[in-house]
Amino acid sequence: KKGNYDHFMQKEIHEQPHSLTTTMRGRLRANDVVLGGLKDHLKTIRHSRRIIFIGCGTSYNAALAARPFMEELSGIPVTLELASDLLDRQGVMYREDTAVFVSQSGETADTLLALEYALEHGALCVGITNTVGSTLARKTHCGVHINAGCEIGVASTKAYTSQIVVMVMMALAIGADKISTQSKREAIINSLPDLPNKVSEVLKLDNEMKDLAESLIEVQSLLVFGRGYNYATALEGALKVKEVALTHSEGMLAGEMKHGPLALVDETLPIIVIATRDACFSKQQSVIQQLHARKGRLIVMCSNGDASSVCPSESCRVIEVPQVADCLQPVINIVPLQLLAYHLTVLRGYDVDQPRNLAKSVTTQ
Ligand code: UD1
Ligand code: F6R
């Protein structure tokens, strides 16, 4: 049921204030987070030698977004694996590892094969999925349902933001016994209930993103530069544009810019730079300066009120978004890029909900 919307992807993007609310429902307490599916396993997780996140596509990107906070709060090394690559390499895994499998459908073949592999190696296997009763939910030792509601559009949108919030809550639960991060932890827990309101605010950019899409109808290629908490936003924003608008786009780590991508910069190639306020802000300011000096066609995403301080010239387009805690900022920042991908697809006349060659759930290798 699409209701008042033309497409499921559009509905699911606009549903995010609600899906995030249901993801958090019953799980927040005063200064605490309770994940029913993990509480008996937190001790084992805290004693693990490493936390490995494993997934494909958007689910992998969600884990990438959550990694910095997971490392900060757990004090445990956190690594990431694309499920197919872990299998191709037969990567090293130990009994002392916690392997966290992230999958909206819970039925992705590569992710399930990686789960078999981790089970054989004796790791604690944790699932993060949207699908109750899925193979992932049944075969993992424990886990968390993201409760985002059924996602129908092939391009994952609301599941992505709910996955990030679940992994942030997981980090908060794991970090409950660590003194040094207590005040930050409590500040994040107390800001979570307001996150859906901030998402409603950023959804008001819908028309602005449609205008931006109109200006990009003819482009052959698009780059997205992010770093820190928003490296994932760059990868995920580019993936959305690629898969639904059928436009080549690449997300890049801004720290790698001088190691190759800078050669691509000219007046025609649009480059989205994510420069919201966090510890990486000044580094992103200098990236913008360098791209501007090479006459790059810039689109800058920044925090509300920062447009004049981050934009080097009138020609630079700005996307201003509400500021939230650094670990939650990826939830806000992806929304304008989801809207951009959606509008670009509609304007180009492509199928939004069933992109060419793709299936909602990839159950073969
Ligand atoms: C559970 C109930 C929820 C109820 C709440 C009340 C279910 C599915 N959830 O939610 O309806 O409102 O208690 O306290 O009945 N699991 C895995 N692997 C996964 C995902 C989950 O093993 O990939 C396991 C968990 O470890 C847990 C169970 O499935 O044992 C349910 O997980 P979840 O729905 O996240 O738990 P609650 O939030 O406590
Ligand atoms: C992108 C997309 C895919 C999936 C990937 C994993 O929008 O939907 O990249 O994220 O196929 O699917 P799940 O999360 O179901 O394992």
Number of helices: 15
| Small molecules bound in the structure, each named once | uridine-diphosphate-N-acetylglucosamine, fructose -6-phosphate
- How much of the sequence lies in strands comes to 15-25%
Distance between the termini: 31 Å
Level of helix content?
A: 40-55%
Shape: globular
Rounded to an integer in angstroms, the radius of gyration calculated over CA atoms is 20 Å
Q: Quick one: biggest sheet? A: 5 strands, parallel
Structural class of the helices, strands and pairings? alpha/beta
Biggest sheet: strand arrangement: 4-3-5-6-7
Task: Describe this protein with a few key phrases.
365 residues; alpha/beta; five-stranded parallel beta sheet; 12 strands; globular; binds uridine-diphosphate-N-acetylglucosamine; binds fructose -6-phosphate
